[in-house]
Write a structure and sequence with these properties.
The chain is an alpha/beta fold and about 220 residues long. Helices cover about 40% and strands about 25% of the residues. Helix 4 (about 140-145) links the parallel strand 8 and strand 9 (about 155-160).
Amino acid sequence: MLSSTNSATLLGVSALPVAVEANSGERGDPRVVLVGLPDATVKESLDRVHSSLSNGGFSLPRTRITVNLAPADLRKEGSAFDLPVALCLLASTKQLGHDLLKEFLIAGELGLSGELRYVRGGLSMAVLAKQQKRRGVILPVASAKEASLVDGIEVYGVDNLSQVVDFLNQKVPWMRFDHQLTQAILIKILYTILMKSRASLSCAGLLKLQFAVGTIC
């Protein structure tokens, strides 16, 4: 069974869209195969995902499962794909509903117990989700705090895998993060980002960042 959701990889300060797909029930040795130009950290995500699913009381079928990160020619880096990969695996094995998966941009690093840990780029991912006209983003709580700077989009902060599954299966309501930070704090954060990026970005890159900043307020 095929399932998919939305995530992102970072290039500098920008978030680039990545589609996460999982297909279960394939013929072959019972294992999970990850394709789509992942780096070493992304490849290790399968071990973290497997442990977190097991400790959360979920199961994987004894079939071959292919997980694809698209587009295939874009290098995927970091641990942010742990959560979307886990959710796609659950959806492909009918342990999670498909209805809400495609409405959100999802990212987060999983601990072996299923707890969610901070990932970089929450602000950039929220900007990307807004540009893509997604309903919102689902991120670890620490990452959701910075994502909540982006107005006009739903931001949900989560503590663990089971909490996300219950929400997407519509078993529990969620309180979303509010756009709470003052304008002065927002300006200070964005100024820091711009100053740190000025030395490493081209003129075109800086213009792109400044355009992204403009979409936040």
